[in-house]
Amino acid sequence: MENPSRVPLLVRVATALLLATSQLATAYDLNPDSRESITSISKQMAEDLVAFYKGNEPGQTPGLLPDPYYWWEAGAMMGTLIDYWYYTGDDAYNNITQQALLFQVGDTNDYMPRNQTRTEGNDDQGFWGLSVMSAAEYNFPNPPADKPQWLALAQAVFNTQASRWDTEYCQGGLRWQIFTWNNGFDYKNSISQACFFALGARLALYTGNQTYADWAEKTWNWMIGVKFINTTNWYVYDGADVETNCTVLTPYQFTYNAGGMILGAAAMYNYTESQVWKDRLDNLITGSKVFFTGPKSNIMAEVACESVGTCNVDEHSFKAYLSRWLANITKWAPHTYNTVMPYLRASSIAAAKQCVGGKNGRMCGLIWSNNSYDGTTGVGQQMAALEVTMANLIGNSSAPLTADRGGTSQGDPGGGGDDLGRDQPNGPDYAPINGGDRFGAAILTILVIASVIGTMGFLFLDETSGQGPVAQLKGCYFSAKGFYYSASAAITTFAAGGGIAAAAAAGRKRGEKEKGVVIKEKVVTKSRDSGSNGSLQGSSSNNTSTEAPLVINQSARHSRASQRRSSNMPIGWPQNPSLRNSVVVAESSSAGASTEGSSSNRRL
Ligand SMILES: *[C@@H]1O[C@H](CO)[C@@H](O)[C@H](O)[C@H]1NC(C)=O
Ligand SMILES: *[C@@H]1O[C@H](CO)[C@@H](O)[C@H](O)[C@H]1NC(C)=O
Ligand SMILES: *[C@@H]1O[C@H](CO)[C@@H](O)[C@H](O)[C@H]1NC(C)=O
Ligand SMILES: *[C@@H]1O[C@H](CO)[C@@H](O)[C@H](O)[C@H]1NC(C)=O
Ligand SMILES: *[C@@H]1O[C@H](CO)[C@@H](O)[C@H](O)[C@H]1NC(C)=O
Ligand SMILES: *[C@@H]1O[C@H](CO)[C@@H](O)[C@H](O)[C@H]1NC(C)=O
Ligand SMILES: *[C@@H]1O[C@H](CO)[C@@H](O)[C@H](O)[C@H]1NC(C)=O
Ligand SMILES: *[C@@H]1O[C@H](CO)[C@@H](O)[C@H](O)[C@H]1NC(C)=O
Ligand SMILES: *[C@@H]1O[C@H](CO)[C@@H](O)[C@H](O)[C@H]1NC(C)=O
Ligand SMILES: *[C@@H]1O[C@H](CO)[C@@H](O)[C@H](O)[C@H]1NC(C)=O
Ligand SMILES: *[C@@H]1O[C@H](CO)[C@@H](O)[C@H](O)[C@H]1NC(C)=O
Ligand SMILES: *[C@@H]1O[C@H](CO)[C@@H](O)[C@H](O)[C@H]1NC(C)=O
C-alpha cells in the first residue's frame, strides 16, 4: 500500500536528517551525570587548550602564552590545569604546570617577575596567587624543597598586596596598577579587590591565621562602602577612578568580578560559619543570575560584551573563572549546591554543544547561548568550556584541604621580601623610567580595550524597567545585533600594534597627567560588511605596512611580544573622566580614522 511517489521524498528527508545530525554528531554531547562523558570530553578540551601553550618547548619561556595572551592569563590557565588534574586525576599536564608556576615567581617569590613588573597590575599578580593557592588546597605535587612552596607563594602575593592598600583616595582599596606610571594606577577595580579578598579568605581558611580574615573583612567592607557592590541588587560593578574618590562608578558587570567576590565570601562563610557571611554569599549568588541567559535564563554569558560582539581577548576567558568558582563554593558552602549546579549543568551542556570549530572540528567558541558556534577560538574560550564541563564533577570530588586537614604545602607568613611596599622598581632591569619608557609602559597598560560606549551590553539596561535584567538583555541582544550588523556596520576597537606604532610616531600626542601618563590611543574602525581583514579603514590604511599588523581580529592581536599588556581589566567607560582622555581618538590621520560618521563621536 505504499505510495511509491513518497519514497524518494522520505529518502530525501532521511538523507537531509542524516546530514544534519552527522554535523551535530561532531559536537560534544555532554552527559553531565556521567563521569565517563565528562572526563572524556574534558580530556579533549584540555588537549586543545594546552595546544595553545608553547612555554615548555625549547627556546620558549615557561609560563608565557604566545601573543595575544597576556601574562596573567597564563597564570589563570595553570589554575585550570590544576583543576583538570584535581577533577579527572589525569596528571598529563602536571609537569608543565609546575614548571610554569615556578618559572614566573620572580626574585622575591611573589609573582613579580622582572619581565612583567613594569606593567603588572594587582589583578595580574592575583591570578597567579589564586592558582598557587589552589595548588596548596589540593595538594598539587609540591615543588622540590629548594624551590618556593605553593602556600608560601600565595602568602607572598598576599603580603605585597596588603602593603599596597591605599588610603590616599577612596579611603582604602587596592589600585588596579602597582606602579604610578601606569595609567590604570588611578583606577580602583573590583577584580583587584576580589583576588585579594578571595586570597585572604582562603589563606585564613588554610592557615587558620585570623589576620588574613581581617583583611578579607576589611576589603569586603570597602567594596560595600564605595558601592562597587550594590547591596540592593547585589551586582558587582567594575570599579571607579580615584580622582572622584571612587564616587563615579564604572557600571559594567563582568563574570569574574562577581565570581571572585562569591569565592571569597564562601571561604569566609566556611571560616566564620556566620549567618552574616552566609547571607552575603547567598545575595551575591542571586546577583550573579544576571549572567545567565537563554530561554531558561540558565546559560552563562559575558553579558557586557557577548551580546554586542565586543569581548576582547581577556574577556573571552572570564566565564572560566565564574564557572570554576561557582563549583568551588559548593564545597565551602554546601547549601549552595542545589542553587548553583543547575546553572552550571545547563551551561556546560550548551558550552559543549557549540564546540565544533577549528581544523579539528571541536574547538570551542565564546557564546554558549546561541546553539551555534560563533566562529572564534582561543585560550579563553577553551578554558571556559573546560571549566564549566569539569564543574559537573564537583559533587563527587574531594573538598579543599587545610593545613589541619591534610594540606602539606609549606608556608612563609613573611614572604614578599623587597617587594613589600615597593613603589619604585630597582635593579638593572628596573632603571628609572625615562620619557620613552614611561610612554611605553603606560600604553601597554591601557590599550586593547573595546570598552566603548555602545559596545557594552549593560549600557542598555534600564534599572527602572519592570523587566529583570536578563529579560531586558534578551531584548537588547537582538536589537544590539541589528545595530551591530546593519546600522552601525562599524565597531570600534583598539589597535594594539598599530596604536603603539602610531602613537609612538607621534609622541607629541601624549599628554602628561599629574599621575601617570595619558596617551591618546588610536581607535580603529572595523567594518564587518566590507569584509575587512584587519586593515585600518580609511586614510591611515596607507600606513599599516609600517606598523605592526593591526588588531581587529582578536586572534591576530599583538604581533610583538613587547606589546604585551599585562593587565586584564577593561578600563572604565564612560564614567571615568581621566581615563576618558586616554582613549580619545587621536586627531590626525595617523590615528585610526573612523568611517561611518565617526564612531568616535559616539564615545564621548
Ligand atoms: C557521582 O557518584 C555517584 C555515586 O558513586 C554516581 O552514581 C554518579 O554517577 C557520579 N556522578 C558523576 C558526575 O560522577
Ligand atoms: C614529569 O616529570 C617527571 C620527573 O621529571 C617524569 O618522571 C615524568 O615522566 C613526567 N611526566 C610527564 C607526564 O611528562
Ligand atoms: C624574561 O625575558 C627573557 C628574555 O625574553 C627570558 O630569557 C627570560 O626567561 C624571561 N624570564 C621570565 C621569568 O619570564
Ligand atoms: C576550585 O576547584 C578546583 C577544582 O575543583 C581546585 O583546583 C581549586 O583549588 C578550587 N579552588 C577552591 C577555592 O576551592
Ligand atoms: C543599585 O541597584 C538599585 C536597584 O536595581 C538601583 O536602583 C540603584 O541605582 C543601584 N545603585 C547604583 C549605585 O548603581
Ligand atoms: C576624597 O576623600 C578625601 C578624604 O575623605 C578628601 O580629603 C578629598 O578631598 C576627597 N577628594 C575628592 C576629589 O572628593
Ligand atoms: C566548610 O567546608 C568543609 C569542607 O568542604 C565542609 O565539610 C563544611 O561543611 C563547611 N562548613 C560549612 C559551615 O558549610
Ligand atoms: C546565532 O546563531 C545563528 C544561527 O543559528 C547565527 O546566524 C548567528 O550569527 C548567531 N549569533 C551570534 C551572535 O553568534
Ligand atoms: C598571620 O599572618 C600575618 C600576616 O601575614 C603574619 O604577620 C603573622 O605572622 C601570621 N601569624 C602566624 C602565627 O603565622
Ligand atoms: C586583506 O589583506 C590583504 C593584505 O594584507 C589585502 O591584499 C587584501 O585586499 C585584504 N582583503 C580585504 C577584504 O580587505
Ligand atoms: C593612500 O594614499 C594615497 C596617496 O598617498 C591616497 O590617494 C589613497 O587614497 C590612500 N589610501 C587610502 C585607503 O586612504
Ligand atoms: C603615515 O603616517 C605618518 C605619521 O604617522 C605620516 O607622517 C605619513 O604622512 C603617513 N603616510 C601616509 C602615506 O599616509
TrEMBL record:
For this protein, the parts annotated as crossing the membrane are: 439-461, 483-506
Domain of life of the native organism: Eukaryota
Its Gene Ontology biological processes?
A: carbohydrate catabolic process; fungal-type cell wall biogenesis
- Matching InterPro entries: 6-hairpin_glycosidase_sf, Glyco_hydro_76, Mannan-1_6-alpha_mannosidase
Which residue stretches does the UniProt record annotate as biased composition, category Low complexity?
530-545, 582-604
Q: Where located?
A: Endomembrane system
Listed Gly residues bias regions? 408-418
* Reaction equations catalysed: Random hydrolysis of (1->6)-alpha-D-mannosidic linkages in unbranched (1->6)-mannans
State if Transmembrane is listed as a keyword.
Answer: yes
Q: Where is this region: Disordered?
A: 399-432, 521-604
Give the signal sequence positions.
Answer: 1-27
For this protein, the Enzyme Commission number is 3.2.1.101
Q: Which UniProt keywords apply?
A: Glycoprotein, Glycosidase, Hydrolase, Membrane, Signal, Transmembrane, Transmembrane helix
Q: Mind telling me which GO cellular component terms the entry cites?
A: endomembrane system
Q: Which GO terms describe its molecular function?
A: mannan endo-1,6-alpha-mannosidase activity
Primary localization class, coarse: membrane
Family the entry assigns: Belongs to the glycosyl hydrolase 76 family.
Protein's UniProt name: mannan endo-1,6-alpha-mannosidase
**Species the sequence originates in:** Trichoderma asperellum (strain ATCC 204424 / CBS 433.97 / NBRC 101777)
